[in-house]
Amino acid sequence: MKKPSKAGAERRRYPRIKKKLDFKVAADGYRFVTATKDISCIGAYCHINKYIPPFTKVAVGLAMPAKNGHPAKEARVSCQGVIVRTEDAKQGKGFNIAIFFNQINESQRKKIAGYVNRFLPPAAANR
To answer: What structural domains does the chain harbor?
Structure first.
């Protein structure tokens, strides 16, 4: 749950950033290749073209570019998640889904946190 600070900034326990990252979601025999709209080390928000109801379990694959942009050094994460929110996209073109990573090992979570922290102000990254 987000709590606004005095300056109106978001103060989540696990900060999120608005970044487009290659993102794969598999659920109920369907596979989607999409991009994140935002990401944190505990979940992601993205767009897909088929309705998948909340509480559906999904497999997730994610690639995060290396700091120097070298493709061979990009960090890859695979985990399990559950859809916690499904919303109609604007103009009726698909659906936006929020996924909570409910089965992710700590090393995978740290890869995402490290990536997210690269884009946060120094004070926020030290949480």
So the answer is: 22-118 (2.40.10.220)
